[in-house]
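Collaborator request, handled under Task 6.
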Amino acid sequence: MPTNKDLKRVVRERMSKTGESYTAARARVVAKHGAERADAFAAEAGMSDDAVFAKTGGTWADWVDALDAFGGMQRPRREIVDHLQNDHEVAPWWAQTVTVGYERIRGLRQKTQRRDGTFEANKSKTFPVPIAALYRAFFDDAERGIWLETKPTMRTCKELVSVRMLWPDDTQVQAYFTDRGDRASVQVQHVKLPDKEAVARVKEDWARRFEALAAHLHKSD
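Structure tokens returned to the collaborator:
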């Protein structure tokens, strides 16, 4: 929103052009600025207001205001994610998405870049299996070994919600699961990548891995 002095100037300019009352002109100026702010936030975050509102109950402007009040500019990413999940009841994957969008809006990271200067690759896919089967394919060591050629170290897990793994090259993978009835989705965030070139390569790798996972789940069905 413009400063109070600037707002009054813009309102008066509109009044002189349209003949509106101060109240009517001010309402139009505020509405226009709000729309411009929303468009700018959505562009920076890389997701529309409608999409984030449908899944979280808040627009980008809502979340920017809430996280600014929380001190998000100074807090580490994990604290923001936990705050969204615990205090605002945002689902795990969407808590990550809102956090990333907020950091982009506030200039704390570029697209695909994290606050620490490293980069991340994101890849998602929906599979025609129940969430328990998809989660097990990631969580169970023996089953994971069938479709995933890499041998990661399991770090943490939350049943049917998420798993975190450490790759042999010290990059990290976070997988978040969503129940879609007779189907289930997984969103993979592969983090701690050194540069944008690695992002492109890793996304291609996960596309190939998802093909192998789909074949494995089809055989197991």
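The cover message to the collaborator said: "Residues 196-220 form the longest helix (25 residues). The domain at 119-220 is CATH 3.30.530.20 (Alpha-D-Glucose-1,6-Bisphosphate; Chain A, domain 4). Please let us know whether this matches your experimental observations."
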